[in-house]
Design goal:
The protein is built from six helices and four strands; from the N terminus they run ααααββαββα. The protein has 185 residues and is mainly alpha-helical. Strand 3 and strand 4 form a beta hairpin.
């Protein structure tokens, strides 16, 4: 599956946005307006104007809708959620070549709110996975103490953890220690 630069950026933003949601022992990563400013800056989201509390609230709602897509049980359910998300954003595809990048498609109108920007670009990026029959690549970490979202871009669709250096390694070490303990006992 070919993933262009702009699609990859949109996927990264979606995953990072979903992962800002508060979990059992983690705080909301979008707890306030400065956190939203950081998110927008870190993801190079341009042309969104001055951010407000209304934007923060709207982005949190979009975050929940994206989480629903990662939890969708089948492509039809994911497609329904994506269609609703993209339609509500007022998607307006247009070609652009800004900031030193070659021609690519933006799916939001100039001056769109940050939530519409995220919904349109992120929704279309996720739509490409459903169209390609690759919805199962939209996953949650299988570590028992982690439910972070990620997109499995491995060649053989075998990635199980959000980060192999943390969650994956921690589980492999625990399994190794359990085997050693059993062998010694």
């Amino acid at each position: 599956m070919l993933i262009t630069h702009d699609t990859r950026c949109a996927l990264d933003a979606v995953v990072d946005l979903v992962n800002t949601a508060p979990e059992d022992d983690t705080a909301d990563g979008l707890a306030n307006l400065p956190a939203l400013h950081d998110f927008v800056r870190n993801h190079n989201i341009s042309d969104v104007g001055t951010l407000s509390e209304l934007d923060l609230s709207a982005v949190r709602k979009i975050r929940g809708r994206f989480a629903g897509i990662f939890a969708a049980s089948d492509p039809r359910a994911a497609a329904t959620l994506i269609n609703e998300l993209v339609a509500a954003a007022g998607t307006t595809p247009r070609l652009t070549d800004h900031d030193g990048y070659d021609w690519h498609v933006h799916y939001f109108a100039p001056g769109a709110s940050v939530s519409d920007h995220l919904a349109a670009d992120g929704g279309m990026a996720l739509a490409f996975f459903v169209v390609a029959g690759e919805q199962e690549r939209l996953r949650r970490c299988e570590a028992p103490d982690c439910r972070r979202a990620f997109v499995d871009l491995s060649r053989n669709r075998s990635r199980r953890y959000c980060d192999s250096r943390t969650c994956g390694n921690r589980l492999h070490v625990a399994a190794y220690r359990a085997r050693r303990k059993e062998a010694a006992g």
